[in-house]
Amino acid sequence: MFSSTTKSIIFAGFALFAMFFGAGNLILPAMIGVEAGPYAYTAVIGFVITGAVLTVAGMIAAGSMREGESRIADRVGPRFGLIFTTVLFIATAMLYPTPRVAAVSFEIAAVPFVGSGHLQLFVYTVIFFGICYVLVRQPTKIVSRIGGYLTPILILLLIALVVASYTLPDISHPVEPRYAQAPLASGLIEGYFTMDSLATLMYGPVILGALATSGFTGAKLRRGMIGASILAGSLLAVCYVGLVHLGSVGSGPNGAVVITEVSRELFGTTGQLVFGLIVFLACLTTALGLLASSSHYFHNLFPRISQHSWLLIHLVIVFPLSNLGLERILSMVAPLNQLLYPITISLIVVAIIELVTRKHLVWAYRLGTYTAVVLAIPEALNSTGLSVFSALRYGLDFFPLGYLQMAWVVPTIIAIMIGLVYDLSLRSASQTEVAV
């Protein structure tokens, strides 16, 4: 029915979808359905732009690696690339998302059945990371395991839940002021918090490696990456729209409660079990992707330490962090996201411009990234909540979108455009000299 090439792209796309689709991707769209009321579908367009379209762009950018290049951030400078990429992997694979998905899946999937408590959390995380260890132990098979087995189950469960929700009547929710005033912009900001753009620079080598193992090389490898990325992004977009509808027929203080109550209303106790399994699979596949990509990166960085040893090091770090509980995890590492996200998005945007223009860019990367760094640092410091940094807010709010904690956006765009014009003028001058 499908050629081996098409099957490889489908498996890679399914795996990529599951790696991205964690607890936040499940819960945030449902809450849009509750809070945005009649503006929900306008808001979800914004959510799809930052939660799916930007993610696809990031993966396509990750697939644009130049010959001999190991990190996209090296285009700013080798030292910057090493420091930034290493911090990115430490923050996302060790300190924050991996412990978070374990803690979130415990809170949502396990607590309703086993209750909360330190002992229950300890036992759950032993089982959760034990499964991760077994499945990541053979990294060459991680994509086929996620794409061929876990993702289809996850998608089928989501489809069953969303389709069944159309038998329930819509609830007339009061609209949150931010959605009434600017539904599209509010949706964009919510999608920003999926954190998927950060993961694109991590998952790129994993998907490229899987496709290369299947015989993809050169231009075919790049086309395969684009196909897998578009498939994953399309699945994410469809899921987001369906989950918004779940919010429109349910209610609750957060997305987890909303989906739990809708599941229970539709299927009783079985529904709660189905939702628990959805959350468990979503969190498990995200953890698998993070652990596999990060252990691979650090093995390449320090080849004397085996990839298996790096996996064990990761597990030794994430296990105690996941047992701190969700609130402590969020408070400890949230400022890192404010620092890393602007830099990552700047790199992705310039990489896409480079692909489209087919020009070798230098200053567009440097000026855009440096501008993002300058504004991301005070934003990250302010997000710590420490009073010593509170005055930074006044300066940041002078910038367009500063009140949305996105003061970096407009200056970074301007810096990228200046760098792009300079790069093109240098190239034009060089070509003129050659012609003369």
From TrEMBL:
It is a multi-pass membrane protein. This is Branched-chain amino acid transport system II carrier protein. It comes from the Bacteria. It is found in: Cell membrane. GO terms for cellular component: plasma membrane. Signal peptide: none annotated. The keyword Cytoplasm does not apply.
